Amino acid sequence: MGTTQLLFWFLSILAILGAILVVTSKNPVHSVLWLIVVFVAISGHYILLDAQFLAIVNLIVYAGAIMVLFLFVFMLMNLNADTEPQKNRWLKIAGVVTGGALLLVLVAALKKADLKAQMAEMGKGDIGLIHNLGLVLFKDYVVPFEISSVLFLSAMVGVVVIGKKAEEDKTTLGSQKYGG
Amino acid sequence: MPINYYIFLSVALFCIGVAGVLTRRNAIIIFMCVELMLNAVNLLLVAFSKMHYHAMSAAMPSAGIDAQLFVFFIMVVAAAEVSVGLAIIVMMYRNTHSIDVNFLNRLKH
């Protein structure tokens, strides 16, 4: 068993273990931290698959920005294990059984798929480098790239509008003061 | 590695995400499980991109590069989605002082 295979199994077990702990942790902050572990493991998989640019972007955007945003919201709301709402036991069992049944069906359907000869060979190819990705991104995909900037702008405006709306109710007292 | 391993890993992560959405009542944890499913799909896209490159690289040197750009765009959309979703959850917390999704069953009554 070579080094890449060892790394593959280590990262796979880390990802699945982290994912299970995300779902089962009582404390929401621990869930966020385990989700960061999952994202780091998935970034490791990207590096194994020679997608270096995506690995770095995944680390920066997901493990960095998005997860910090989640943590920030948790701290804003002051949530912990005591305030965590719990479903009753039968609903939890039903949820786990449903997820397990989906896993069973997908694995059973894909087990017989004729993909044995198809390999995702590691350590070969340079399509994941930023040079090659950038050339294709700014030649063939320049319109979606620009549209995504519009998407970001609209998301930003939307967040500001949503965040402001609730504040207006609270500040009616203040506006009354100015109005009177 | 054979592509099967990546398929099964992604399927396992996706199903854990589904089970998390179904078992938790905390809105933010449900949101995080959705992110987990999104990342499982991204991982599978990158693995398929590598497989496609391995099969086609002799004829086309840039085979499989599109899938990696798709993953890039999925991340872009996910970042926007997370910001809007968290804003909605914060607004819901301001109104109900809870992030329990069971408070949001008013359509039933």
From TrEMBL, chain A:
EC number: 7.1.1.-
Keyword list, A-Z: Cell membrane, Membrane, NAD, Quinone, Transmembrane, Transmembrane helix
InterPro entries: NADH_UbQ/plastoQ_OxRdtase_su6, Nuo/plastoQ_OxRdtase_6_NuoJ
Pfam family name, one: Oxidored_q3
MF GO annotations: NADH dehydrogenase (ubiquinone) activity; quinone binding
Subcellular location: Cell membrane
Membrane topology: Multi-pass membrane protein
Principal EC category: translocase
Catalytic activity: a quinone + NADH + 5 H(+)(in) = a quinol + NAD(+) + 4 H(+)(out)
TM region positions: 6-24, 31-49, 55-78, 90-110, 141-162
Gene Ontology cellular-component terms listed: plasma membrane
Taxonomy, superkingdom: Bacteria
PANTHER family: NADH-UBIQUINONE OXIDOREDUCTASE CHAIN 6 (PTHR33269:SF17)
Family as reported in the entry's similarity comment: Belongs to the complex I subunit 6 family.
Main function: NDH-1 shuttles electrons from NADH, via FMN and iron-sulfur (Fe-S) centers, to quinones in the respiratory chain. Couples the redox reaction to proton translocation (for every two electrons transferred, four hydrogen ions are translocated across the cytoplasmic membrane), and thus conserves the redox energy in a proton gradient.
Stated name of the protein: NADH-quinone oxidoreductase subunit J
Gene (UniProt): nuoJ
From TrEMBL, chain B:
Broad class of the protein's primary localization: membrane
Recorded catalytic activity of this chain's protein: a quinone + NADH + 5 H(+)(in) = a quinol + NAD(+) + 4 H(+)(out)
Locations listed in the record: Cell membrane; Membrane
Superkingdom to which the source organism belongs: Bacteria
EC class (word): translocase
One of the record's GO molecular function terms: NADH dehydrogenase (quinone) (non-electrogenic) activity
Transmembrane regions: 6-22, 29-49, 69-93
Signal sequence extent: none
Gene Ontology terms: biological process: ATP synthesis coupled electron transport
Assembly information from the UniProt record: NDH-1 is composed of 14 different subunits. Subunits NuoA, H, J, K, L, M, N constitute the membrane sector of the complex.
Name of protein: NADH-quinone oxidoreductase subunit K
Native source organism of the sequence: Puia dinghuensis
Gene designation: nuoK
